[in-house]
Amino acid sequence: MKIAVSGFGTVGQGVAEVLLRRRDFLTGRYGEMPQIVLAMDSRTYAADPEGLDLQALIDRKKETGSVGKTGYSDSAELLSRTDYDMLIEVTPTDIKTGGAGLKNITRALESGKDVITVNKGPLALRFCELIGLARKNGCKFRFEGTVGGAMPIINLCHENLVGEHIRSIRGIFNGTCNYILSKMDKGQPYEQALKEAQQLGYAETDPTNDVEGYDTAAKVTILANSVFHKKVTVNDVKITGISKITAEAVAQAASHNMVIRLIGEVSETKLEVSPRLIPVGHPLSISGTLNIAQIEADLAGPITITGRGAGKIETASAILSDLIAILDERRGHA
Amino acid sequence: MKIAVSGFGTVGQGVAEVLLRRRDFLTGRYGEMPQIVLAMDSRTYAADPEGLDLQALIDRKKETGSVGKTGYSDSAELLSRTDYDMLIEVTPTDIKTGGAGLKNITRALESGKDVITVNKGPLALRFCELIGLARKNGCKFRFEGTVGGAMPIINLCHENLVGEHIRSIRGIFNGTCNYILSKMDKGQPYEQALKEAQQLGYAETDPTNDVEGYDTAAKVTILANSVFHKKVTVNDVKITGISKITAEAVAQAASHNMVIRLIGEVSETKLEVSPRLIPVGHPLSISGTLNIAQIEADLAGPITITGRGAGKIETASAILSDLIAILDERRGHA
């Protein structure tokens, strides 16, 4: 298996690290190690048809800030020039246009390559087209890490719960908002909690995507398409963020033994992101940066799952899970 | 797919009901409906090589207390006389000897049949032998419902988390004990809480298996074997039950903002069932009859899952999940 990796920031480096850590497992299971034959960051690339030295790649990126010495102008064109079997697409999410990720995934699927991504933009905007392209060209296309990071949710619904009619999924899918709201529970005003989240690296300098609910909306869109077979984009989601929540509102909730949480919900009739009052002690009253999903299934009943929604190794672990699933399917292991 | 069902109590009837409810789904996915060709309860059986009428079977069992008019003396011998592809083994758990379930599963695997079971006894006593027999004879052998009922845990670890090193699993795997302990949190003495659990049908007339921790120990044993690849039986588990927990102990825990919960734990070095002090608000402080498992994975980090640990349709839903997985593997769907 020859892998191209587009994006070599935190997650891309995590993927290389996880592949190194699982060398024995992967070699044992498949008889050979999947090789990264192309790694691209935002400006440069490194390529080796025999497989790049992953440790050297990680070290070079750390030392020089780049994966290679050679620049490129068009990542999709670079992909077209490369001999590979699978694209791992981990460029940053662009929720307005789909960005480079959309171009890379489209080019890979058009060329009959399997794709794993944690990039929410392309799926939040063009889910149906991309799935259609994958089907048409016989490609495996997996994206477990787009929702909930290391928390299993998409493959859980597709595989373990495939015989269920899933009535609804409600959850907390943005650790940054939950961190801010948890701090507000303890009396911090919004601006101060946001600043602290930024200092800790949980929130970006421009926190709009997180705090205005767009990130959660992208995840809800992906669940709506992949689990509920709806044909919707992020623009169909009714979105309210957390930036207008006041300390007074949080205090008033607390006086009724409630907290405010940013809940994403998808069901047959609902596609919504909004701050909601949650009773203290309710599973969705969870504090901190964890993600949580409540799945309502018709036979199994309620199933709740929590896990880390972000992190270098955690996100890479979701990619590893998708990689193993594809390798198993491709090679007939089961 | 011709299915033999051994055991036609609550869970067996649930299986028939779930198959009826999923007729369209199964027929659509596989082109034909899996047929139950043999159904046995504790005394009688019904057989039809073309497939039994499931609604008539359920109705007959309800009206007459039996699935058929013909008795049998040896269920394993009856299996040997039947043409079938898969055994669904749902006779009651016998944790001391393995009971009829052990004989039925052994016979089925020896004959090269696939097996799905929710019967904990055979696996808690003879895990390695049964897995070995399945491998030797090329049989699929699945048992998701033995631990946590409808809560996905075994297949979750085997499939979604197969690339992880799982460090430990801790959880509440017995809803009866958790119901009793939750009632004791509210000031009820043990005996009264147990009696109430019995009246509600959560606890059996002889509650020993539940309250002395043997049921939890069986589940921990199954996790130790299937997830941690240990070769242990229920007799290797260090077990303390809840029958000696006093109202005073619960009150003292409460004064430190703690509750007492019966926790099953398995790790590389631990195999234990014991009542533990859990801080209020901790995921394991869960109240009522739900089951919960905390999985500690080396890459993904902590993953927590909760779901219904028992119930007719809920347990049958775990069997449906195993059935779909086997049918997918057998017919190359993925």
User: How many extended strands of chain A?
Assistant: 13
How many helices of chain A in DSSP terms?
13
Order of helices and strands of chain A: EHHEEHEHEHEHEHEHHHHEHEEEEH
Largest sheet of chain A: 7 strands, mixed
Structure overview:
The structure is a homodimer. The first copy, chain A, has a seven-stranded mixed β-sheet, with helices on both faces. A six-stranded mixed β-sheet of chain A has the order 9-11-10-8-12-13. Chain A has about 325 residues and is of the alpha/beta class. The longest helix of chain A is centred in the last third of the chain and has 20 residues, at about 310-330. In chain A, α8 crosses α9. The model of chain A has no long low-confidence stretch (mean pLDDT about 95). Chain A has two domains: about 1-150 and about 310-330, NAD(P)-binding Rossmann-like Domain (Rossmann fold), CATH 3.40.50; about 155-310, 2-Layer Sandwich (Dihydrodipicolinate Reductase, domain 2), CATH 3.30.360. The first copy, chain A, has 13 helices and 13 strands. Chain A has helices at about 10-20, 25-30, 55-65, 75-80, 100-110, 120-135, 155-160, 175-185, 190-200, 210, 215-225, 245-255, 310-330; strands spanning about 1-5, 35-40, 45, 70, 85-90, 115, 140, 165-170, 240, 260-265, 270-280, 290-295, 300-310. At the A-B interface, α7, β13 and α13 of A face α7, β13 and α13 of B. β13 (about 300-310) of chain A pairs antiparallel with β13 of chain B, so a sheet runs across the interface.
